Amino acid sequence: MDVLDELWNVIKDRMANPKEGSYTSKLISKGKPYVARKVGEEAVEVIVAALYEGKDSLIYEAADLLYHLMVLLAVSGVEWKEVLRELEIRRGKK
Ligand SMILES: N=c1c2ncn([C@@H]3O[C@H](COP(=O)(O)OP(=O)(O)OP(=O)(O)O)[C@@H](O)[C@H]3O)c2ncn1[C@@H]1O[C@H](COP(=O)(O)O)[C@@H](O)[C@H]1O
């Protein structure tokens, strides 16, 4: 299992079993609009890092964006494997 699959499982577990002190549980409890806004903020931070900061900053911000995007997918009822399937379909088109 790769790190994204493991992260997905943790996010789904935090949804099913909210945990005290968990950032993911706190994020989920704030609702989809809040999570969506966080994705937007993290995307902007990725853009700023790519254009004005170094590679290390871009890696850090990209990880933040991926994490928040996965939480948004989870609270929207989308399964990670459905996103992977869409990518597989696109690969098959080329
Ligand atoms: N990958 C992540 C991850 N990436 C980023 N973050 C958190 O995302 C937040 C982003 O920082 P910001 O400054 O934007 O947000 P903030 O000011 O802390 O919080 P807000 O009030 O703005 O929401 C930080 O608090 C990070 O700790 C993450 N928190 C958790 N994970 C993964 O989720 C797992 C479970 O974590 P918990 O849910 O905390 O147990 C961890 O083991 C990690 O694998």
UniProtKB/TrEMBL annotation:
Family as reported in the entry's similarity comment: Belongs to the PRA-PH family.
Organism (species): Ignicoccus islandicus DSM 13165
Stated name of the protein: Phosphoribosyl-ATP pyrophosphatase
Top-level division of the source organism's lineage: Archaea
Keyword Hydrolase: yes
Molecular functions (GO terms): ATP binding; phosphoribosyl-ATP diphosphatase activity
Keywords, sorted A to Z: Amino-acid biosynthesis, ATP-binding, Cytoplasm, Histidine biosynthesis, Hydrolase, Nucleotide-binding
Catalytic activities: 1-(5-phospho-beta-D-ribosyl)-ATP + H2O = 1-(5-phospho-beta-D-ribosyl)-5'-AMP + diphosphate + H(+)
Gene name of this polypeptide: hisE
Biological process, per Gene Ontology: L-histidine biosynthetic process
NCBIfam families: histidine_hisI (TIGR03188)
PANTHER family: HISTIDINE BIOSYNTHESIS BIFUNCTIONAL PROTEIN (PTHR42945), HISTIDINE BIOSYNTHESIS BIFUNCTIONAL PROTEIN HIS7 (PTHR42945:SF1)
EC number: 3.6.1.31
Pathway: Amino-acid biosynthesis; L-histidine biosynthesis; L-histidine from 5-phospho-alpha-D-ribose 1-diphosphate: step 2/9
GO cellular component: cytoplasm
Pfam families in alphabetical order: PRA-PH
InterPro entries on file: HisE, PRib-ATP_PPHydrolase-like
Subcellular localization(s) per the UniProt record: Cytoplasm
